[in-house]
């Protein structure tokens, strides 16, 4: 072996050792920073509070935090009737910050930077929204979200959790009945979906159409019903009942009009039971027809 070849091999060996040493050193630094978040580790259970302008909602929540990858990362799993999240927390030596990466069943959120400051773990989604994690003096797991308004941080949710009992299982529990409120507005919710075992019931609030005549409004009201069904993952064929409210109901003229529109839109399709209700007026003088319905799905 020539001296030149030997020098090359020695150089490569030194570079390999330096790289390995740097990697090990980097991993050790990561572990040291991750150790600062040890107060998160464990199974926790308690209440989660969501704050709206004039309302506070309270639900039961469970969280489980665990070290993985020999202490170089933490997984944080959250389960409640309103949210299920799986989050991975890591530390970057190069960027001198933590990274917080949450994922839900339906969405993967962007990675956000986090910092350990004065005993708190702070995650910034953007300059005006952040999460706070801390352990209280009494040993509770305290998590809350804040929004910056007029220079003041205001809470929009807060979790106050205690260590779960030793016989506690973090596996998500299936609720006997779950509800989903779809497209809520100030006075009502347009669609409520209720799931029980392998059935899904869908309740649609009254939908009105557009146009000057009853025929035009009936046709567009049916389209509105179809839209609401689609929002709940259903279709027109899943309807099991409909109510038709008609202003100044005229059985002779309105029935003919009704069947004409149904034939135009749906042909020979089997239709759900209907209830015709004559009324004096709707919420607006321009509105002449309103439809509501109930649908059932087998999941």
From TrEMBL:
Alphabetic keyword roster: Signal
Alphabetical list of SUPFAM superfamilies matching this protein: YjgF-like
Pfam families from the UniProt entry: Ribonuc_L-PSP
InterPro entries xrefs: RutC-like_sf, YjgF/YER057c/UK114
Signal sequence annotation: 1-26
Keyword flag Signal: yes
Protein name: Enamine deaminase RidA (YjgF/YER057c/UK114 family)
Originating species: Seonamhaeicola aphaedonensis
